[in-house]
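Hi team, as promised in this morning's meeting, here are the two structures we talked about. I've kept the exact order from the run log so nobody has to guess. The first one is mostly here for context; it's the second one we should focus on when we meet again. Sequence first, then the predicted structure tokens.
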Amino acid sequence: MLGERAYGAVGDIPLSVDVDIVDIFRRSEEVVPVVAAAVKRPGLRAVWMQEGVINKEAARIAEEAGVLVVMDRCILKEHARLIGE
């Protein structure tokens, strides 16, 4: 996405790769294990759940780890909105 490599699972990302944001394209009921794995990565700044993806337990896990949470929003649409396209 946006010229960056994407991985199918957080566990597939080498530890040598810095992760700022985990963008989740999964059903809402499948999000908790993704977020639980993501918050273990050093330097993670945000967990983004795409449109239609809402999981309050996953949000709580991320927030307790000090990670910003966005739910039910399309990252591409938000990017376009913010840059005025």
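And here is the second protein, the one for discussion:
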Amino acid sequence: MSRRDPSGQTVKGRSSGFNPKNRFLELYLEPVEDGPWYDEFENGTFSPLGRKVPTTFFIDTSKTILAKNDSPDIPFTYSLNPYRGCEHGCIYCYARPSHEYLGFSSGLDFETKIMVKRDAPELLRETFMKKSWEPQVVSLSGNTDCYQPAERKLKLTRRCLEVFLEFRNPVGIVTKNALVQRDIDILEEMAKLNIVSVLLSITTLDQELARKMEPRTSPPFKRLETIELLASHGIDVGVNASPIIPGLNDEEIPAILQAAKDHGAEFASTTIARFPYAVKELFIDWLDREFPLKKEKILSRVKMVHGGKMNSSEFGKRMSGKGEIAEVIHDLFKTNVRRLGLNRARYHLTVDHFRRNPRQIEMF
């Protein structure tokens, strides 16, 4: 049984309406059906319905910083996540179930219980110093947004970028937050060496839809402004028109690509949304609240691109879908990409400038 606010009210500033059950835990606390919503993470106190849920930060003591993947449909081997969980709270986020490994939920917990890898820059430096490290493009990030709100004060991503520049190891950044503008001074230096690429994700140009679907991200116009600013500083920048949710934002593909091109984007990518594990519950609940009249149409089309399900784990198809609707979406994307000249490959960064021990080199 899912933990819901019995009154049907939503939590302010969050896309998740509840905490679905953690599939790894046998012990599970449920609310009193006729009473207020009990939050076991707030010192065992009762909180008013429809309340704002504060974000809590925890220290992550991981001893390594780069996550390795061997998925054939992901264009990089290593990713760096300075945080676990993401306060942006995108309702469709495929990374939500990873929070269950920490004993949290894919729902509100993913948005409000953030793990902070405070040693990320030092761990990255240690990795690059090892003789076993083969210089290659690292993705920032694969399972969270490296520029989520906490980054404004904690500056872990900025400090990691300083390490990337110090060792001259290439990095590809993916974000929905205009906060990346803060680090233009570092990115500009990296761009001169051709070791950085930035991808701004734009799911919709509709500010109201973005507010509901991605409540704590930068609004669409700020992301376009960011593309323009990065491009004006000679930084390699593109647009990620993702994820596409059939029946909800697929018709916006031409407009998103056109706007990105007009603001200086040089390349584009896209994926089709998938809803693994509890993300399915969360998304259906969100549709009930935000788009009840469109709900059945959207769910029907999502299932049509995933073989009758809400999710697919099939490599090569899980992020692109299959079937007629998926083909229409990708044809629409490809046609507009060609028309606008956005079909350059995303990663063309160099490892030629990498240096194993920059401090020692500087001494000589």
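Starting points for discussion:
The chain has a mean pLDDT of 87.
The first helix runs from residue 108 to 112.
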